[in-house]
Amino acid sequence: MSAGTGASEGKPLSEAGKKAGRGRRVILWRHGQTSWNVERRFQGTTDVELTEAGLEQARRAARLLASLGPDAIVASDLKRAADTAAELAALTTLDVTHDEGLRETYAGVWQGLTHEEIIGRYGDEYAAWKRGEPVRRGGGELETEVADRAAPVVLRHAEKLPDDGTLVVVSHGGTIRTTIGRLLGLDSRHWESLGGLSNCCWSVLGEGARGWRLLEHNAGTLPEPVLGDDD
Description:
Distance between the termini: 32 Å
Largest sheet: 6 strands, mixed
Helix content: 25-40%
Strand content: 15-25%
Number of strands: 6
Mean pLDDT: 89
Protein name: Histidine phosphatase family protein
Order of helices and strands: EHHEHEHHEHEE
Structural class: alpha/beta
Pfam family, one: His_Phos_1
Radius of gyration: 16 Å
Strand order of the largest sheet: 3-2-4-1-5-6
Number of helices: 6
Shape: globular
């Protein structure tokens, strides 16, 4: 199946990931802290900037990620992800490719609401989502639709890597989780089991003979709580 198409439930999206011997890695890195993360407001596609603390998180994490010798960087075009990616680009001299396919889940009327407001106004919808049911949160995207647009972006860029190359993908908590679930071939009902990423933490997928494998999850510089859209 080509990188530009979706996958059926429970099947890995990438045939490229099944080619033994290339040994590529994909690091999926969540953006730094924003004021809406701190306030527990659902950001979605709202273009919220990093706080000063978020910028510092990005700088610290970038130093660690630069030491891994990445070959390419691709990022969501929303400011919080783009500015996070810029910190790694400054250390590696790599260009950043921005792609709107890596944006966070569009969540309609949920966007801008706090966690408590969402539960108070849309409690049944929230509970159904947490149970793993297909829910258009706030009238927005399904999680599978997010994976349909984000996972192919990751695969297109991973395919360009040299053998044993490393791609850094700078995105958002919900989008990263759905992308990991899709690339691992997990049924969407079980994506919640992956857990959320703290700000500026990352997960690592490695390429094996049978496809992509989860090597690390929620790795980072500090043991931070998960704040934001995907809790």
